[in-house]
Amino acid sequence: MEDNSLYNRYALAFLEVAKKEKKVEEYRKEIIELKDFFKNEPDFVRVLKLTDIPKEKRYGIIEKVFKNFSEDSRNYLKIMIKNNRAYFIYKILKETLFRFDDYLEIEEGTLFSSFEMNSQQIETIKKAVEKNVNRRVELKLVIDPNLIGGFVVSLKNDIFDASMLTKINGLKASLIKD
Questions:
Q1: Which residue range(s) make up the domain with 55?
Q2: pLDDT for the residue 156
């Protein structure tokens, strides 16, 4: 069983820094980039957690690799290294994003589609979903060849199904009823 309170403590502390600096939106974008980077670069995490490499040298790596990020975000990573939490960086960043999204009332979801959509189509769907849930929504597009047509939006607590299969089943049910 994992102790999520560790991730939560880091996340809430960084959220407080962001609120104090009035940079919650800006830092949220950086957290997304960092989270994706650490998810896709497990070898980089292995280097950061090596205790036989002096911490100062690992701090230098953070400064060099993430030079385009805010000083606060770089310091956030350095604190994790200082406290020997490099192994948990991805999970801490994931919790941090969750806390930032909660504070900003943003809900992330997945848009499943049978076909590639352009940004205008995605934006139209996003606006319709936002109207329904009264929150800001960010959607990640996933092409699902198993969908016959249409799309499905999946959020944490809601599913909006506009797939052809659902429409066909609804039509079938209404025909059987009559």
A1: 4-103
A2: 81
